[in-house]
Write a structure and sequence with these properties.
The chain is 54% helix and 8% strand. The chain is of the alpha/beta class. Strand 3, helix 5 and strand 4 form a beta-alpha-beta unit. It binds zinc ion.
Amino acid sequence: MAFKDILGNSRVKKTLRKALQKNKVPNSMLFCGPKGVGKRDMALVLAKAMNCERKKDDACEVCPSCRAINAGNFPDVIEISPEKDVIKIEQMRILRKIAYLKPMMGEKRVFVVVEADKMKEEAANSLLKILEEPPLFSYIILVADNPFLIISTIKSRCQVLNFSPISKEDIGKILVDRGYEEKKARIISLLVHGNLKKALSLEWEEVQDRRTKAWKLFLSLLNKGKVALFLRNYAASQRALVRDDWEQTLEMLSSFCRDSILIKEKGDSRLLMNPDYEEEIRKAETLMSLEGLMDCLTKIDYAIYGLEKNLNVNLLVSSFFSYFKEWEYV
Ligand SMILES: [Zn+2]
């Protein structure tokens, strides 16, 4: 993989290539932004380009260094990731020990710390010591979905590069290139909020199945009287769902709610996120006022926001449901 293989985030790519051309890549960097937009891939391509024997501002993919990095046999590009969901102090101690030694094969040693927002306080303090006295040959790239969880003293010592979600058009195009029908590609691209990785991992049948369930749940929200019973059953059947699954269900609810608002306000139906549900949405939107739908959307989006910020999933889901349970008595 070289820079051309990373889709989206062309501004970040340009900044990095310019730094490579001038030989001014910062020793400490923080790549942050939403999930699934290629932050880790970008860090690994940068690490490769920094050690490439043929090209100055990209990875050539054929020189011995590029090949060794691709095969995972290059001792100077080191990826560190959480062990049991935590980056531990021992991992940072090892990083510190190696960081001050000369590179073994390449010119530059690059550490890529993925999910750096899962660093415990002790580990963060240990890392901070390295950032305060940056080693000559070593570079540290922190990759994080949630920069708010990284202590400010670390952030202030890193050059921060913000990644953006991948555009719906780009995701749609990539899915079509991979053999998806245009209509299906469009629906998926609308549902994943710029998360390319997620778009590529979804199976269409699974998406359809989940949309059917989300649509039933949405209808029950609109039919206030039946909410309590439905939600109890739904919550019980979905108890095993993990964070990502809840995120998807909530995103689908959000898309149905947005579509209902669009129809209620007589907007352009070409903008529907669920064009194949148009007829059903037209029937259902009459069940609730515009204010009710807006309120519903705020609650759904708040729950999604909470999941993205890594708040406790059980608490979020139960407070989300309890809000709608109260509706029964309105
Ligand atoms: Zn190369």
